Amino acid sequence: MRAAIAAESAGIPSVSIVCDGFVGQATATARGLGYDGLPLAVTVGHVDAQSVEELERNFVESTVDQIINGLTSTDPTPDSESSEPSAVEVVCRGTIDDINQRFLSEGWSDGNPIIPPTLDRVERFLDGSGHDPWKTLGVAPSSGRDLTVWSVAVNAVMAGCRPEHLPILLALTEILADPAYGSEHSGNTTGADAVIVLGGPNVGALGFNFGPGVMREGAHANTSVARWLRLYLRNVLGFRTDEHDKATFGNPTRPVLVEDGGCLAEIGWRSLAAQLGAHGNEINSSDMSSSDDVVSMARTNSGTLIGSVFGSTPDEVLPYLANGLARVTAWDLTHVYGLGTEQYQPLLVVSPLIARLFGRAGWGLDRVQAALFTHARIPAETFENFIGSWTNLTAGRRTLTDLVSEGALPAVFAESDDPRRMVPIVTRPEQLLVTVSGDPTRANAYALSNDGPHGWWTAKQIDHTPASDLVCNIGGECSPID
Fold this sequence. Notes:
The chain is α/β, with parallel strands linked by helices. It is built from 15 helices and 13 strands. The strands form 4 sheets. Strands 5, 6, 7, 8, 11, 12 and 13 form a 7-stranded mixed β-sheet that branches. A two-stranded parallel sheet has the order 1-2. Helix 6 (149-159) crosses helix 7 and helix 6 (149-159) crosses helix 8. It is flat, with a radius of gyration of 24 Å.
């Protein structure tokens, strides 16, 4: 789509070829990028499930005519007038059952009951925040809709968030608007879903759980903020099955994962946001202080429990933790080489009990990451299968030794030509992210793979101070609105 839009912008007619089942997404993407009615040609069936002969026959018999028609048609561009209700329009009246049924039928809810976002409720949610309701934080690349403070508040009321959560929601909206995160990929077919990681000194006072059951529903703050993200992706960014959400299976919404800041400080480990800032992931760690709350987010493909970790020394527990990182990593390796370059950053969450084991032994975070890098390895031939013969996402079928000789991967991937040699799952130790959360009396860990550039780790600082958008000076003139 980006290539077609670049051509159209230069005055060159284009036709975008899309797979069967992606017409709705392509239409919405074009609209979000300002080109409603961009010509499309649809291939028959899924290209991965056809032989070359079938693919060529279907393309000639069906798709070619669509391409010709798209390039030669003189029909006017379809009217892009929206039939969506306005921001303050009353769309439904009745009992709470009536309202929930209407929201279900329109696709405005996640399938669970919502709190009706009445004008009064939304206004009360924003009351005292100082934010201009119509301030725009960005534009959704997937839908073309403005990401406004008002729309954040509407979905926050629906999700059951509390007003004190607004600064966190605004920071998350900034992540969605950040091109580095790539929110337009939030509905890809493999169904990765966002994991929100929250850290800072105020998380406990805001009601967030970072102890037992941290990744389970039940803590209102963790659950409602995560639900807000799902509703906002659906209602504002357009990630519904009839539009942008093409997940084959999908993942359930994950409650917000909150770091145990006290344990991190005790053992001297950096927070996740500081790890990201330390090697250039959108936030400057030198600007952060211990009084800052920060929210980080990435899209994760899958996770695996590393249960009942046994051992009393780092050397005893490290192989088990590293094995979990290796087990959760598979086709994601195309983000090490292929779909992305050095853009795979899995996350290891360890319980405070395990973290303190490292702390007592004097292991800093850098040493832990270096040891995980040494142990979290898979056979070279398995790596090559994931980026080669088992996928069409990576051009060619080059070996790791070939890629090293071309400078595409570091030398550690070609220390010999033995196909069974063990190679790392990332290119540098610091790409193995580590944080602390969960029950402080249990020896468990959890590993999450991530979706590389389809939801790149991005962090934003949270500003809890009231905004000055609506502040007027003594002369009666209001401050300018962004």
